[in-house]
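Quick question: what would this complex look like in 3D?
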Amino acid sequence: MPDLTQSIQAAFSERFGERIAVDPALPGLDELHRIAAHRVHRRYLARDVSPDLLRLLCACAMSAPSKSDLQQADILIVREKARRDAIADLLPEMPWLRDAPVFLVFLANGSRLPQVSQWRGKPFPNDHLDLLFNAVVDASLVLATFMRAAEAVGLGCCPISVIRDHARVISDMLALPDKVIPVAGMCLGWPAEAGAITPRLSLGTTLHEERFEDGDLAQQIDAYDRRRARSRPYRNQRDPARFGVASFYGWSEDKARQYAVPLRADFGAFVRAKGFRLD
Ligand SMILES: Cc1cc2nc3c(=O)[nH]c(=O)nc-3n(C[C@H](O)[C@H](O)[C@H](O)COP(=O)(O)O)c2cc1C
């Protein structure tokens, strides 16, 4: 299937700025193409996603692998308009949250396993950081699998981690018990526009063989900044009043500015208050 081969290569050339070999005889090229062409969507048509389709996507998501088969990820569907609006009100900078036909929350659930141990009359000497870590990994895999399923049927998604800026309020709103925390929200709907591929750091930076190798990282980041600026230049610079106006504004400048501001410094306290131990 030469068309798909070329489309995958075109997507990766945009993504990584390099030609990736694709054997046209491989099965599953359509799936690889969807993965290669991934992009989040933040604008949606005014068209519902049927409950049956949503349930199908959740079933696909919950088919993701699970660490030790512990199954520590849950999905919460927020349908009620008042609750949706209350969450959207907390995040006015992200109007796609209010507009999306569907809003979900992906949860790390560290509460089931200790309960099971108790019901089976067993000790639970594993109430430490690993419990949280495993549950967050499971939730992340479920989230990624959900996106893959949604994109396969032509839906568009945008994960929403900024709900964690209001973790306590949202946790109360959704009645999350102890040891259940939100990992990310998710907007879902039929895309209103095609969207575009976001370039990633080159595989030379993020793909390692045998030993971790950082090499000339600063130079590689600089090259990435310039490659990315050619196809996806930033429209606005963050906080020019504090940082000035950069003559060249690339990804690294943007991320450095973004993380020059304390973000969710209270998140550890929230996670502890939800009963997770972080040691
Ligand atoms: C865990 C996670 C949380 C995210 N949180 C937000 C968010 O709060 N708001 C938002 O608009 N986009 C969010 N995104 C989307 C990213 O900004 C997006 O994936 C990134 O810019 C790369 O774009 P791409 O996915 O189209 O390649 C999130 C993505 C992930 C994986």
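Answer marked as accepted. Residues 129-152 form the longest helix (24 residues).
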